[in-house]
Amino acid sequence: MEIIKFPNLLPIMMDYEEWLKSKDLEYREGILYMAGVNTVDIAEKYGTPIYVINEDLIRKRYKTLKKELDSVYKNNQIHFAVKANSNLSVLKILKSQGAYFDCSSTGEIYACFKAGISSEKIIYTGNMFTNEDFKFAVENDILVNLDSISQLKRLSKVYEDLGKEKNLISFRINPEFGAGHHSHTITAGKDIKFGILDNQVIEAYSKAREYGFKKFGTHIHVGSGILDPNDFDKASEKYLTIVMKLADTLDIKFDFVDFGGGLGIPYRPKEVPLDLEEYKKVVIKRFKDLIEKVDMDQVDFKIEPGRYITAEASIILTQINTIKDNGYKLFAGVDAGFNTLIRPTMYGSYHHIIVCKKNSKEKTQKYDVVGPICESGDVFGKDRELPELFEGDYLAILDAGAYGFTMSSPYNSRPRPAEVLLNDQKSYLIRKAETFDDLLSHQEIPDHLK
Ligand SMILES: *Cc1c(COP(=O)(O)O)cnc(C)c1O
């Protein structure tokens, strides 16, 4: 099922300890520490399951990426993809770093406002927009990144009805080359719902001009979890050809060119991270060379990483309640389930699982690590080689900081767990666990059932 390629896995492999260390995880006297904090203490203090987030690592990932982009081309903005992690503290951390934001819904824009982020830092890349979505965006001076030519007319009318001046507009372009860790996360290609195809771009931008828009940007986002810079290479080459065609044919001076997100992370042990040098070469350097050649300076370069910035900064701590040997297989049953982290069930994704406390036993065994949800797909990992496990032990599920909490659900009427932030060796509760009453609070009973 997984179609991710690992071309950069061999011949260089990272040492396992080094790989853990790159996620700010290490064992000290047999205990797993994250950001210098004892994970067993966290599990005992707050209960399990729980999402634990490392503030420092979020800052570090942002800063690394920013520095790399700055080294090539100064007019760049990194828009954090809010759908990866929309916790207000996470948004505030990135805001304080100077990040920009990419929102896929008005709810995410609302969360950004609550985190004190201002309109001009936000791009709204929705799809299948309603008129209410447009109204919210226009009222709040949010740049809309359109997904269909048909939406222009409706958006235009919203501007006119609200008496707002039409200024900057952008379209998501589908370069017909996609990539990603799973077919659901490949977001370009002719039979994919996103963006406008090459043969419609001229029409889209000339119509936008007819409707009265004055400034223009372009956008692509070709997929998610990409570790092979070749995938970015092909997409960005095609994309820039389209952008140049537009600029030439319609004599447009673009305000920005947005390359989307999709930067992958090393989920598997020893896997090496995305080669940022290569990424820079095929994306920002190519962009810079081109705009210099055609004398098109002052264009902003944008990217929209989500996973790259927050995924590795969070783990889920979970407690084993049941060790079950059914005669064929050993199961380690934990208190987190696909309600807590759906990626393994939904995409067949790999998340590494480790013990929070090593025991003195040498022997390892193969376990299926499973959750408590009443579905057989509630599996975090099959045949995982782990030290002998016991009921009551704590496990850590790694790389849960992107598409973890944001894709969680209260399925099986299980309240969502709390979120804790680690900073400077201290822990802060940044979201309380939900209660049973939270789950029921919106329900109303009609009179005849009272
Ligand atoms: C999901 C998404 C992103 C972020 O993707 P990552 O793989 O997390 O980097 C960026 N831009 C758009 C438009 C998206 O839909």
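^ pyridoxal-5'-phosphate complex. Residues 81, 83-84, 102, 104, 125, 221, 224-225, 260-263, 304-308, 402 surround pyridoxal-5'-phosphate (CB under 6 Å). Residues 1-11 have pLDDT under 50 and may be disordered.
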